[in-house]
Amino acid sequence: MKQVKQTVGALLAVLTLTLAARLSVSAGAEAAIAKGISDNQAAVGDTVTCTVTVTVPACDPDAAVAFSVSDRLPEGLTFGRTVSVRTTEGTAVSCAGGDGPRWSFAPRDVKGVTALVITYTAEVNGNILIGDANIGTATLTCDPGGTDAVSLSAAAALYSYGLQVLAVDAEQPGRTLAGAAFDVYLADGVTRAGRIETGADGIGRLTGLDAGTCYLQQTEAAAGYAPADGRIKVEIPDRSNGTPVPGGIKKVTVRAARLTRAAGGRPGAPIRTAAFAALLTPVLMAAAGKRRGSRRPHAAGKKEGNEPCVSGRRGARRPRPARGERKAAGGGGTPARRRKRRSAAGNGGLPKLTGGGARRRPEALPGREPETRKKDKKTAVP
Length: 382
Known about the structure:
Layout: H1 2-26, E1 32-37, E2 47-55, E3 67-72, E4 77-87, E5 96-97, E6 102-105, E7 115-124, E8 134-142, E9 150-158, E10 161-169, E11 181-185, E12 192-197, E13 203-209, E14 212-220, E15 231-236, E16 249-256, H2 274-293, H3 323-328, H4 335-345, H5 374-379
Parallel strand pairs: 10-16
Antiparallel strand pairs: 1-2, 2-7, 3-6, 3-8, 4-7, 5-6, 8-9, 10-13, 11-12, 11-14, 14-15
C-alpha cells in the first residue's frame, strides 16, 4: 500500500508540474520549458541523455542575466556533462555555468533567439528507486523587465527494475535451497549485468536492471542438487507502458533436481567438486588400507623337509642358511647333486640304482674281485 501511495504521488507531481507550465504559457507568458529523457527505462551504470527545451522569454536588454535554467536530478542520477546548447536550428548559444545542471544566459547571448535546446548526460547510480518513478525537474527562471519573476518547471520520470530468484526442490517446492548462484546477462547474451546468490530462505536479488530480456546462467548448485541446464530467459515488463510489475521486481522460481548415484553427470549424478573430493578422499584411502591389511597369512607347513614360511605372504622367500650349515645338512650344489647325495645317504653310502635293468657295479661289492670287461675278453689271445 505504501508503494502504491508513493507511485500515485509521483505521478500527480508530474501532472501538476506539467499543468502548471502549460497554465503559465496559456496565461500569456512568452516563456516555456519542456524536459525529455532518451530512455525512461534504465539500469545502474547506464548513461541517459536529457534535453531541456526553452522558449526564450522577453527580458531586459540591460540586465546581467536574462534567464537561467536548472535541473534538479533525482538521487538515482548523477550529472555527467553538458553536451550542447543550441538553437532549434542548430546554432550554438553561449552561456555561463554548464559544469552542473545549471545554465545562465545574458541578453546578448540570446539576442534574436526564440528557442534553444540544452542537452546533457547523467549516469544511473545505485540510489535509483526500483519500481517507482525517479523524477527530475527542470526549472526556467526569469525576471522580464524587472517585473514579477516567472518560474516554470517540467519533469521527466525514469524507471528501473530488479530480478528475484527463488531456488526450490523440484519434488518439494516448499523446500528452499541456499547456496545457488546465477550470473545475469543482458539481452545480447554477452554483457554480464551481475550475480545473484540465494540465501538461507532460497531467495537472491539483483536490482537496477532495465526492462526487456535478460538471461540467467546457473554457476553453482545448492549442495546435493544438480544445476539447471542452459540459460533461463526472463522478460522484465516495461512499467511505463502500463504493464504492472509489483514492486518493480520480476520474480523467477528455479526448481532443482536432487542428486543420486546414477551415472552420466546429469540430474541424479553427484557433482564432483573440490569440497566433495576433499571429503571423499580420506574415506577411500582408509578403505584401501583396510583391504591391503586384510589378506589372510599363508598356513605354515612343511614340504618334504622344507622349513615353514616365515612371512605370512604367499610366495615369500624362506631364510637362506649359512654356507657351512648347508654343507652340514647335505646342501649346496645343483638340485641333481643334492638328490644324489640324499639317495646315497639312504642306501648305506652306495649309489642308488636307477631303472629296472640296472645292476650294481662289481667293484662296489665287498669281497669280490673286479671282473674283466667284455670288450677285454674279445680282444684277448686264445
